[in-house]
Specification:
By secondary structure, the chain is of the alpha/beta class. Helices cover about 40% and strands about 20% of the residues. Helix 1 packs across helix 13, helix 4 runs parallel beside helix 5 and helix 9 packs across helix 11. The model has no long low-confidence stretch (mean pLDDT about 95).
Length: about 325
């Protein structure tokens, strides 16, 4: 999706006579695999997994060639457990990350020593219990392997249902039920309790489950991706930067790609503009991001038109 959005905005800028350096990014959610494939020199692989409701699908993951440091895999949780896979059929209580665990297991079986897991965009709030189960069934995570989870929020484990459950179709009663379940899961995860730990609530607690069960390293997804694709040198060569997000709101300020891009642009003295699907951020939030202009666009044609309009401001 990020690739298509960047291409559409780029077409608008180029039609206005400006050169565009297309730089699709992600923060751990959808688009993370696409953003990291070229940067890591990874090849696209697939594995049979279960979707959030247990139905069989084929899901992609990236795997780098063998090297002295070992192979690295990129797994996008949304590829196996994404909200887009269930659409109107979403069951926020039943939805499981089992398929994400299967995808991680496939990457480990393929020889990966490091598995980068993009945690975002899932239909799940199972605290990672499904993924943990799938990994245990596959033999667990070898001590020689390393899990790195890219998180798109700083939310702690126990708040995942309250903050993100409604976006996944959960009713108020289901949010309370899911929250109780998360607390029960946290108590059962042993000496590493994810409650209160920043970033453990990403992907409905998947990040926290992997942290508690397998010692996964939790890192801000947007920062990791931007560093991997060499964003800062490209930013310093630019006259301006254009970023975007589906919905610009308070959550955009904490861990999302748009916030990280805006922060780096401000620090480098490069004007930052945004094209978003919709904007619900107040003036104070806008000042925090220091965005020069915010335009709304809902499809490829509107994105290109927004790019042309932005060209007049640059």
């Amino acid at each position: 999706m990020a690739t298509e959005v960047a291409a559409a905005i780029g077409r608008g800028l180029e039609r206005a006579g400006l050169e565009a350096d297309l730089c699709p990014i992600a923060d751990g959610g959808e688009g993370t695999l696409d953003a990291l494939l070229d940067a890591l020199g990874a090849e696209l692989c697939t594995a049979p997994v279960e979707d959030p409701l247990g139905r069989p699908i084929e899901a992609p993951f990236g795997l780098t060639p063998a090297s002295r440091r070992g192979m690295t895999a990129v797994v996008e949780a949304s590829a196996a457990s994404g909200l887009h896979l269930v659409s109107d059929e979403c069951d926020p209580v039943k939805a499981s990350t089992f398929g994400t665990g299967q995808l991680i297991a496939a990457a480990l079986e393929g020889g990966a020593r490091t598995v980068i897991v993009g945690a975002g965009g899932t239909a799940t709030t199972d605290g990672g219990s499904g993924a943990i189960d799938a990994l245990h069934r596959a033999g667990g995570v070898p001590q020689s392997a390393r899990l790195v989870v890219l998180c798109d929020v700083r939310t702690p484990f126990e708040d995942a249902a309250r903050l993100f459950g409604p976006q996944k179709g959960a009713t108020p009663d289901q949010v309370r039920r899911l929250t109780r379940r998360l607390h029960a899961q946290a108590r059962g995860l042993g000496h590493r309790d994810p409650r209160g730990v920043p970033m453990t609530g990403a992907a409905g607690g998947l990040s926290g489950g992997l942290w508690a069960a397998f010692g996964a390293e939790l890192v801000p997804g947007a920062s990791h991706v931007l560093d991997a694709i060499g964003f800062d040198p490209r930013l310093r060569r630019a006259r301006a930067v254009v970023t975007g997000e589906g919905r610009l709101d308070q959550q955009s300020l904490a861990g999302k790609a748009l916030s990280e891009v805006a922060t780096r642009a401000r620090q480098s003295g490069v004007p930052c503009h945004a094209i978003v699907g919709s904007s619900a951020l107040d003036r104070f939030g806008m000042r925090m991001l220091d965005l020069q202009a915010v335009l709304e666009a809902g499809d490829a044609g509107e994105l290109a038109s927004a790019g042309r309009r932005l060209a007049d401001l640059l």
